[in-house]
Hints:
The structure holds two protein chains of two kinds.
Chain A: H1 6-36, H2 40-43, H3 70-76, E1 78-80, E2 88-90, H4 93-126, H5 132-143, H6 151-164, H7 171-196, H8 201-208, H9 213-242, H10 245-249, H11 259-269, H12 274-294, H13 296-308
Antiparallel strand pairs in A: 1-2
Helix pairs in contact in A: 1-12, 3-12, 4-7, 4-9, 4-11, 5-7, 7-9, 7-13, 8-9, 9-13, 11-12
Chain B: H1 5-50, E1 52-55, E2 58-61, H2 65-72, H3 74-105, H4 112-124, H5 127-138, H6 146-149, H7 181-206, H8 211-219, H9 224-235, H10 237-253, H11 256-261, H12 273-283, H13 287-311
Antiparallel strand pairs in B: 1-2
Helix pairs in contact in B: 1-13, 2-13, 3-7, 3-10, 4-7, 5-7, 7-10, 8-9, 10-13, 12-13
Amino acid sequence: MFGISRRQWNTWLVNLALVVICFFALIPVATTVLISFKGERDIIRKPPNFFPCDTPERAFDPAACRWSVEGYQRVLSPKPSEGGLLPFALTGNIVRIYIPNSFLYAISTALIVVFLAGMSGYAFSRYRFRGRSALLFAILAITGVPLLTNLLALYQMGVTIRRAQLPFYDDRLFLIAVYTGFFLPLSVWIAKGFFDAIPRELEEAAVIDGCSPFSALLRISMPLALPGLMAIFLLTFVNVWNEFIAGYLLIARNELKPAMFGLYEFLGQNIINLQVIAAACILIALPIVILFVFARRSFFAAMVEGAIKG
Amino acid sequence: MPSTSPPQTQTKKKRRERTRNLLPFWLILPTVLVLLAIQVYPAIYTIWLSLHERQPAGWEYVGVNNFTRLFNMGIFAESAGHTVVFLVGYTSLTLVLGFIIALLLNRKLKLSGLYVTLLFIPWIIADIIVGIVFRLLVVPDYGLLSGILQNPAIFPPNGISVLTAARPPSWVGGFPFPPAAAMVYLIMASAWRALPFITLLLLAAMQTVSTEVVESSRMDGANGWQVVRHIMIPLMLPTLVVALFSLTLGGMNGVGMVFSLTGGGPGSATEVLSYLLYVLGWSQLNFGRAAALALLIAVINWILILGTLRVTRVEERTH
């Protein structure tokens, strides 16, 4: 037919189907972006219209679109400030308190997890010792345990430690410890997989040349394992950033809670102002989506290593 | 002087040997300590909590009272029913769609990298944000989909208001089927977020099915459906089971989506067991009963986890 073979037709149809699926997969994201750029007047219309572009004469007139950044303004609430680096300061709670908190939790957890998983993944990959298989099996089993069922006990532990009034201690340390405990098991398996892929002859040669086993690990294997450790860092960062229930329940003071809590609180405060909620969602999800689009190879490598093989 | 030298090097060598033998131990120790403190101890503590009740004076041992009281609560049976409906809908929808998309991606396409990246964006978005995003679409009167769904001309007799429509009368006893519109919507939103991961999992398994087997059965006259039914599904069975278990595990314990999308409502129409755990523990401050429920969920989790480990024959890979 028209000089196109059946096979080419098939490829065309598959591509068409995938385009349609991608379209549906991204509709909720697209509508959120759309809502976030509407003004209050277009948000509270009945019945709602998709684009804020109608005029009394025409249903859709690109020239008459009433796009607005009001939602973002109300999330960020910029106020003029003097003496700062910028001529204005962002005073909205989400950007001033909650997003920095999430950065703190995500970065510190990810660093600790990379460090611990790097060490133990290396040991599991390179050494044969008594109890190794049993320990690996136990770690893999723990990987599947969800946070939810341990949350009551962790909450009680948090209350007890808080009462002890230790110096330099606040809930933030406890939350980072909890996140580390939950995202570590998978990372150990990912790290082991990455180290398994590095030929051990390289280290053995270094040891024969007079390097100690520990410095062989630091100087030879670590640089080669860097992409793997990077993947663990990114995966843990995203997992912590996206976590809601532990950050919500294990931290007592609101000003120490992470961004997902800020968003949840915001949802209760803006029941009708959909554009404000949408803008807050976009601001919190955007860093992660950008990270993913630019580092997707890293994410997929970690997933293949951890979830699909493991 | 030269005579003392050999024994000295020998002890040095021995010491070096010993540190080398202990090195893996030191490397693993911090991980084991963290896991004992954050995973093992709380699990045991939960068992203790489930047997105690908080009194003004302290914790009192109450035996299995927490369990009997939990089972006697009307909301427990109802939530269990909601969980079953949710899990059946969620796992079957995600597995079927994931299989179809994996089937489409399982060939050489110029744009497959782009498709995978785009399809994966839902997976990277937090469940609480996904809940809000889907909620915005169906907010009564103002949501973009509400304009269509609430229109009586399209959905007679009165249109559907997803977030407020009560559950229709049950078909079988008190079992919550057919589900409320909010439950169907919750299933769709959850499936939307889980699809990318399941698609990739199934695609990886599909690529290990040898093309020769498929080609030769094609030559023997098998049509597309027969190839899927008699060759792909049997060969991918372990992965399908793993996918089913991991979806069940996630669906059973996920709570963020319920929080932000429906808040358990309307009424208690989307109150699943994981959300009930939160309500018992932190809204009603009934820690004993909540711990009993946590233990129950944990037992189901462990059955699923051990099932997964069995299917993937993980012992072979721990060597």
